[in-house]
UniProtKB/TrEMBL annotation, chain B:
Domain Response regulatory: 6-123
Modified sites of kind 4-aspartylphosphate: D55
Taxonomic superkingdom: Bacteria
Family annotation (Pfam families): GerE (PF00196), Response_reg (PF00072)
Identification of the protein by name: Response regulator transcription factor
KW Phosphoprotein (keyword) present: yes
PROSITE patterns (UniProt xref): HTH_LUXR_1, HTH_LUXR_2, RESPONSE_REGULATORY
SUPFAM superfamilies, per the entry: C-terminal effector domain of the bipartite response regulators, CheY-like
Amino acid sequence: MREPLIRSTEDRIIAGVCAGLSRHLNVSVGIVRVGMVALALAGGAGVLLYIWLWLLVPTAADEALAAERAFNPRDIAENFARGFGASGAFRDGTEQAGTPPLRPVSQPLPQPGTPAPNVEGTGTRRLLQRGGKEILIGAALVLAGGAVVAQIAGINLPWGTWLPVLAIAAGAVIAWMQLDDSRRSGLMDRAGATGAQGAVRLLAGLVLVVAGIVTMVSGSITWEAMWPTLFASLAVLAGVLLVLAPWVLKYWRDLETERSGRIRETERAEIAAHLHDSVLQTLALIQNRAGSEQDVTRLARAQERELREWLYRDKRQEEGNLVDRVKAVAAEIEDAYGHPVDVVAVGDAEMSDRHEVLVHATREAVQNAAKHAGGSISVYVECTPGRSEVFVRDRGPGFELASVPPDRMGVRESLIGRMERHGGQARIRNTGSGTEVHLSLEHPQEGTAS
Amino acid sequence: MTEPIRVVVVDDHAIFRSGLKADLDERIEVVAEAATVEQAIAAIHEQRPAVVLLDVHLPGGRGGGGAEVVAGCAALLGETKFLALSVSDSAEDVVTVIRAGARGYVTKTVSGAEISDAVQRVAGGDAAFSPRLAGFVLDAFGTAAVANVDDELDKLSARELEVMRLIARGYQYKEVAKELFISIKTVETHVSSVLRKLQLSSRHELTRWAVDRRIL
């Protein structure tokens, strides 16, 4: 199969036309380039052909961008399949309701727009890295040298004509390169990062072209006649600009609208995909299990938690810190026992080995509450610099530590013993309307992440 | 306690409104319902209820939701109390509506009895704090703060901190009172004073906390 005609962004001297052409025609690049130069010498036909191809043939990045535009966010099924490999497990499972929906949080949807800009951005940089600039300068110097040699050899070059023409050509090339670059990344993106550089390039191109034209024209008219003429042309230019400005503006706005529309579509698709993966599945499951009240409540709680996490996640809260871990523990036990566990957190702390102990003890306490007390369980985490505390409160019948037989290892060993071994404290008390476990950990040297 | 408390329920979901009406006990009489910001403001001005049960997220108006309703009824704040009711946990939603003038905040998942208690409390001029709201307060004001006269508005007193901590730990008002050996009335006074601070404080830290969460 023949390669499509695409300008190369890697192997290029001016705009990658020859390299692209060679790949398309399956001919060596050198031959194409020599042919192009030969054509250029034949009355400038090659130059015209080159410019024509430059304008009409897209680059690889252009193609990628076009493919991205063709990406249809509404086609959730396909995009979804792209984003997630297997999602079948959830449909069959009944007990896994808590786990699969968590996946989108930890593993966000791949955004369709992200890979393309990377490809685009590297084009110019790669050219510069490969010394493309040096090659260009070298070529210009060789040309100049050749011209000087020709001059010495006695061939009379009409410098007065050639220099301005060269200046105009150089200016146009610089300006066009700029357009080429910016067009590829959608005109807007570059405004922030390389805007200054782009402006300089554009200005340099403009100055070169204007200087060239002025020099050329000044050959045929006197300097006295020059200024009124210049003034008149400026006036004409301003008039044309005045007429064209609304069109340009309109085009610009259309482009912006289209862009923002596309972004919105992408966002919407992401939300739709998420809802599909989690909420719709859970709703279907709830309909299936409508008979069992406990299952329905459990599913609803798990789904609520997951959706909440997705919607209201505190952006500053670091993943994997103490609060995050305690919430995960609470969610796990809520799923396992079907009793709601509410976590309220103030501050946060980075995890350490001793915090790991605190998390384990918290799990033990919440589990005890879910097992023996039932009902809703409140967990309160408070982290201040140097101190982390966890309160686990239930509204069960309550129990006295003294009444627990010594052979029961659960509370004594995994709560009190473990906390104390790691320099913490665990206190269990009967509040009269339930039990409260208070775990505290002092960590003078470690900072908090709140 | 003979007169039932007149309540307006504002929520854009008819199912939730009817469910809530069925759940509220006999001390409370629902006199009107509203589903949008405009309807709510009109109904509240017409009925002059004692309490408005207000969803934080509402369609209509300028998109301000519950906070906009409170702002639209600012002239009535003396006689009408607002109790925010939401499924949302986000600090933005909660603190915005509290700072607009609501007297309390409860989540929609709590039982009818608890909501009725909260309505009762708000109607009596007190504040209704959920554990989560207490958590936000502690987060915003800091957990190590004792007021002196200068920054009275900007920090919580030791007692207020204790009360907030207990509420955050899941204690109800009467349990807090028992725990601290004070009367329920005193607990309510402390909570009301915390609410006032939350509404009025322009403390630098509070502002920054709010800006971090894009609230103000």
